[in-house]
Amino acid sequence: MARSAQTLYFCSECGHESSKWMGQCPACKEWNTFTQAPSIPKKRGIGGAPQRQSTGGEKRCVPVSVSEIDTADGERFSTGFSEFNRVLGGGIVRGSLILMGGDPGIGKSTLILQVCASIASDSKSKNVLYISGEESLKQIKLRADRIGKCPDSLKILCETDIDTIMDTVISLKPDIIVIDSIQTMYSSGADSAPGSPAQVRECTMALMRLAKEESVSVIVIGHVTKEGVVAGPRLLEHMVDTVLYLEGEKNASYRILRGVKNRFGATNEIGVFEMSGGGLAQVLNPSAHLLNGRAEDAKGSVITCLMEGTRPIMMEVQALVTRSDFGIPRRTASGTDYNRVNLLMAVMEKRSGLRLSGFDAYVNIAGGMKAVEPAIDLAIVMALAGSYKNKELPAATVCFGEVGLSGEVRGVTGIKERISEAEKLNFEACIIPEVCLKEADINNKKIKIIGVKNIKEAIDMLG
Ligand code: TYD
Ligand code: MG
Questions:
Q1: Same domain, 89 and 158
Q2: 108 CA distance to ligand 2 middle (Å)
Q3: Which of 105, 351, 378, 416 is most buried, by CB atoms within 10 Å?
Q4: pTM, whole model, 2 decimals?
Q5: CATH number at residue 105
Q6: Which residue has the CA at smallest separation from atom 15 of ligand 1?
Q7: Residue 152 contacts by C-beta under 8 Å, 6 or more apart in sequence?
Q8: Which residue owns the Cα nearest ligand 1 atom 25?
Q9: Are residues 132 and 257 in the same domain?
Q10: pLDDT digits (tens, 9 = 90+) for 84-127
Q11: How many CB atoms lie within 10 A of CB 182?
């Protein structure tokens, strides 16, 4: 039976739907935002081929088997940056929608313009359309001049009306389009101002349809709110195929591209870039870069090796433990989890007899990196103990392992990759959890491998 036309009300802020009018939206708690929906939007299938068949008033769909689905245009194309490809799982998939978030001024527009220039100058000569709602053509030209040469197949458009953009894309048929940024786009389908959640949702939906129907890959740039999520409804992240975040400390030059959702690949990979005078440059060997400038005999500084996706990255953990002048000791953690540092200090106090409770402690990951992998625990413990006792590990030693509440050093994954990264960078010794010794295959290694059972054994190594 056909569904009769129904009056719907929806929140103009978050898009929450209801069959009756309400003063306050139960989803976003905004007042007076409910409006009557003009009509139920016409449903359209995604993926191209019409599946509906009408037979004598009855509506039926025709399911297909997986082997019948045509994947001829499901190709991936390289972005020209191996660090970017890695995060995407190999390259941009045709017809996919990628959302790229990040703080203002972090370098989103710069990186995407560089990617566009590189794709457009590829030998397969792809047509790229960069649509900006934020900057004028002149401003984009100034940025393009800084990053180098932009080929003619890269076209620039300054436009904010999503309907005009859709018509333009349908007539020009580019391979990739970029929307910079989704918060500046405007659709006549929603009444609210550009940037409001309803507008952001409406525009993203239109772009999603465009991507699937026209097989054009869409990269959407989005701003990030104070809370660190892409401004607009959280729904946005559910709608798109891939969500990437570009992050980094404002003052440090490193920028980390992180995948948080990917329908076409793994999400735990990161890409490392460095901001330079000519745009963002790839950092192909992050470990060597991050260890640059390290003081060789620093007490309270320990090198660890963490896995970021499939790639091991060396980082320096620094700790400073000083006698506290006040009743309540001060503790800070930058680049790692504050609560984890407190927990590890409690474990150290109880299990290895270090009287840390009257001391302030500051823990820092050098280079502006963020590290939350459990394997960092042992390095934090060693750095704190080193600073407290004013002792250090033998030079060129790496350590990693998870620390449990009873002070035991627990196994971690990726042992071989971590050890070989340490070997590559000429480290001489590795302190690892004892349970992992078997996996480490210690016989044919030039690096010395030491297994520890608990933090007491590890701390005793400080000489
Ligand atoms: P931008 O890409 O405009 O940031 P977003 O789009 O994320 O807001 O980047 C702006 C910053 O990057 C700005 O502070 C200047 C800096 N920058 C460089 O250091 N070198 C360059 O070559 C370019 C183009 C920008
Ligand atoms: Mg920008």
A1: yes
A2: 6
A3: 378
A4: 0.77
A5: 3.40.50.300
A6: 105
A7: none
A8: 279
A9: yes
A10: 999 998 889 989 999 998 888 889 999 999 999 999 887 677 88
A11: 27
